[in-house]
Amino acid sequence: TLFPYTTLFRSMPIDFVIVEELDECNQANLPFAYRRLDHSLLRHRLMISNPTLPGYGIHALWEESDQRVRQIRCGCGRWQALTFDRNLLPGPPAFWGCEKCGRLLDRTAGEWVAAHPERPMRGYHIPQALSHRITAQELLDDWRGAEGNSFKEQAFFNLRLGEPYAARGQQIELGRLLELRGEDTMPQVGRKCSMG
Q1: CA distance linking residue 172 with residue 16, whole number of Å
Q2: Tens of pLDDT along 58-95?
Q3: What sign for the dihedral angle of Cα 86, 92, 95, 98?
Q4: I need a labelling partner for 69 at 20 to 30 A (CA). Which of 37, 108, 159, 190 fits?
Q5: CA dihedral 153, 175, 116, 87 (to 10 degrees)
């Protein structure tokens, strides 16, 4: 996580920048961290994060990446990326099944496939559906407990599914914001200005 003090990012050249929880860090410090790579022959960057909002932070980088997902092969021959909507079958107990034939999927029988192999930046989507420590039933129960509560729904999408999420009315559209601005300006009364 990047600290609020930029002096920590100017001290010495490095070969590898790792930013954990990109969406939660102080975004203003990122350029200082990246400049430390200037004298390196390697210049590696690794961004790790749970997504928060669409188009922000790690999701914005995902959109620019080659978008690798783990494709799982069913015994029927169908290749598919595990998704909560198409592959979580209610059971009981719930299980990860093929979207075509409904058979139980072996989550170890897969490979990473890039949606845009021509793009230079690699991006991996790693939802909890790929974890062997989290059962399909746990995810289903968690969703049932979150449904209808926008805060819990956001946590479910961000942390369990690894997807960005904005509840209805949560995200301000730039076009709408520009429509609402008026011609009035704030009077200059000092050096500080705040808005709430």
Answers
A1: 35
A2: 999 999 999 999 999 999 999 999 999 999 999 899 99
A3: negative
A4: 37
A5: 20
Q: pLDDT tens-digit profile of 155-195?
A: 999 999 999 999 876 666 656 655 676 666 656 655 665 55
Give dist(CA 29, CA 3) in Å, integer.
Answer: 8
Distance (Å, whole) CA 156 – CA 83: 13
pTM for the full model? 0.78
State the chain's maximal CA–CA distance in angstroms: 71
The partner residues of 19 in beta bridges, in order of sequence, read: 47
The CA radius of gyration of the chain, in Å to the nearest whole number, is 21
Q: Are 160 and 139 a contacting pair, CB within 8 Å?
A: yes
State the alpha helices, DSSP H only, in the chain: 30-35, 58-64, 84-87, 136-146, 150-155, 174-180
- Distance (Å) of CA 144 to CA 3, 74, 128, 138: 37, 27, 16, 10
Among candidates 176, 166, 193, which has minimal Cα distance to 23?
166
Nearest Cα to Cα of residue 158 among 27, 31, 62, 80? 62
